[in-house]
Amino acid sequence: MTQLPLPYQPTNDPTFATTAATTFEVDDTYEGALVVSGPCPRCGALLEVSVFESIVRSAGGQPSGPVLIVCDCADQHPGRPENRRGCGAYWNVIL
Ligand SMILES: [Zn+2]
Ligand SMILES: [Zn+2]
User: Fold this and answer.
1) What is the spatial distance between Cα 72 and Cα 40, in angstroms, rounded to a whole number?
2) Does 29 fall in a domain?
3) Which ligand is nearest to the CA of 5?
4) Which helix (H) or strand (E) holds 46?
5) Domain annotation covers residue 7
6) Structural domain range at position 56
7) Ligand 1 centre from 94 Cα, in Å?
8) Which residue has the higher pLDDT, 79 or 32?
9) By the 8 A CB rule, do 79 and 5 touch?
10) What are the tens digits of pLDDT across the range 53-91?
């Protein structure tokens, strides 16, 4: 796949959330934690984010609110600060 490297840019595009809602999977294989995985809607890198269930679910198992997902890929994105990972994309998901 030939693709020019995307520049690092903190971005919260509304399409990220809608895209991720269809492409991301949620696993609750870990004790008390959810693993959210799927391709970053901006750069396409595969992401795997662990979220503590107690943070996103209230006692009845209902979602308690959106969770912020931030791309933390290890790909090259020009302009990225040295201590950062990812392409800068972030979005909210309701788990
Ligand atoms: Zn990304
Ligand atoms: Zn990336």
Assistant:
1) 9
2) yes
3) 2
4) strand 46-52
5) no
6) 14-94
7) 19
8) 79
9) no
10) 776 667 776 766 788 999 999 999 999 999 999 999 999
Dihedrals φ, ψ of 2, to 5°? -100, 125
At 38, give phi and psi (nearest 5°): 165, 175
Residue 19 CB partners (closer than 8 Å, separation 6+): 41
- Please name the residue ranges forming H helices in the chain: 14-23, 53-56
Number of domain units in the chain: 1
DSSP 54: H
The answer to whether residue 5 is domain-embedded is no
- Tell me the sheet residues that pair with 94: 66
Instruction: Please check the confidence at residue 30 and state whether its pLDDT lies above 70.
Output: no
Task: Report the amino acid identity of residue 31.
Answer: E
Centre of ligand 1 to C-alpha 58, Å, is 29
Centre of ligand 1 from the C-alpha of residue 51, in Å: 18
In-domain check, residue 1 = no
pLDDT on residue 32? 81
Statement: residue 43 has pLDDT above 80: yes
